[in-house]
Amino acid sequence: MLKQNNLTRTVRFALTLLWILLSACRQNTPAVNRGDLPFPETEISGIRARYADGSLSAEALVREYLQRIKTVDETGPAIHALITVNPDAIRIAKVLDREMKEGRIRGPLHGIPVVLKDNIDTQDRMPATAGSRALKDSYPLQDSYVANQLRKAGAVILGKANLSEWANFRGELSSSGWSGVGGQTKNPYALRRNPCGSSSGSAAAVSANLTMLAIGTETNGSIVCPSHANGIVGIKPTVGLISRSGIIPISRTQDTAGPMARTVRDAAICLGVLTAVDPQDEKTQQAGRRAHTDYTQFLKREGLQGKRIGYYTAFRGINFKVDALMDSAVAFMKTQGATVVEIGDILAEGTEDRSFEVMLFEYKDGLNNYFKSLGPEAPVKDLADLIAFNLSDPVELEFYNQKYLEMAQEKDGLDSETYRDALRSMLEGSREQGIDRVMNEHELDALIAPTGTPAWFTDLLNGDIFQFGSSSPAAISGYPNITVPMGFIGELPVGISIFGRAWSEPVLLEIAYAYEQGTRHRRAPRFLEDY
Fold this sequence. Notes:
Layout: H1 2-28, H2 44-53, H3 58-74, E1 82-85, H4 89-101, E2 113-117, H5 145-152, E3 156-161, H6 165-168, E4 178-179, E5 183-184, H7 200-207, E6 213-218, H8 224-229, E7 233-236, E8 256-261, H9 264-272, E9 308-312, H10 320-335, E10 339-343, H11 351-373, H12 383-392, H13 403-409, H14 417-442, E11 446-450, H15 472-477, E12 481-489, E13 492-499, H16 505-519
Parallel strand pairs: 2-3, 2-6, 9-10, 9-11
Antiparallel strand pairs: 1-3, 4-5, 6-8, 7-8, 7-12, 11-13, 12-13
């Protein structure tokens, strides 16, 4: 009898354990098998090699990505990363295939699919909406300079990515990744979680293998935060390295476009094709600008050797799990020959408040100029017109308000003394008394910080739930920032930011590449439905 009872208990225990394991499998089974794409996690170099040996065509690759978009983005987990798919993508790929057969290669992105954030103009059959229903039928009169450079390099613009509407500078209690046109983008690692923003769809599309590359834009955190939350690499370059003409603006002082990719190398390749001087953007013509057309030359596995790096510790103690990942990152960097010193505050007191003031002034001026660029048929004539549209629309103000648009409308022009004083103080507080001061005092090559905390649950009624983000010093100064996967907390990725002086992209890439190659934290998402 004792043996029977023991056997019964053993069987029950085994059945219970089996039930637990099966339940866990059900919970953690991806909604879509990422293996249904023949080229998941493939880098540009791998695709280019297959083009060269004739085993793959641009048309075939584009067709695979379009099918993947239908399977993952439009149905299946339905992450809503894209607003529009380019109806001409296959035609463009066929043209690029013919050119390859003739021995003509446009550039390093020949035949490579790229998605653009939907605040970047393209002169084709895709509107540029900024996620707003006011612009859902707005077709720009010409390509943005970024789109033009991508086409020259041979990229296939696969579609337009969803975003936090108006790049998340419309009103209070917004949910990152939500727009009136595209709805709510989901985080592909855990579908109930938020993708961060405002380049939400760009990051989710790259991470979910809906494209090889994406272009995002950032005013403060809008490239690095979604890259971090979606487990990819994002480069927010020095303002002026990449043109902003033809991009729906917030701040002429802080705005920049930047590449988003699954690897540092792919991001560096994309960065190099976007650095041409634009006659329409004075920031690309500024004195002292240092640009390269090939940033892969700076990718060195020993890139951490001899570097002096400042660890920006302002956020330490807020999230002990993120602290633990940073401790591991710092320890790794030291093993690779870097010296790491702890740094306290970077920005001078009041700098972030002045940045907000500057953005309001520049937002009004920038939006009004952009609406004029759309010509006499523009669906919105000026900022006042946009505010009125939102008040009359049944969707736009359903979840949050438009306070920032209204505050911007009240501002004077850019000849205002208030604006000039705020701009001067902001730049001094973030540059001479900010990043430059800290780096000079400690003789640093770069600064590092956790990019943010793991993705929160999306809540359309209460908006985003941030613990912290480290983007402000680089964003407000207009200096470069690169985020790279640093590890996972549970199933959620966390990134490390590497930032520094103006035009220091080469040294930041050295550090980012060495860290990435030595740690290999990137892993593809599994589309968890209940996490």
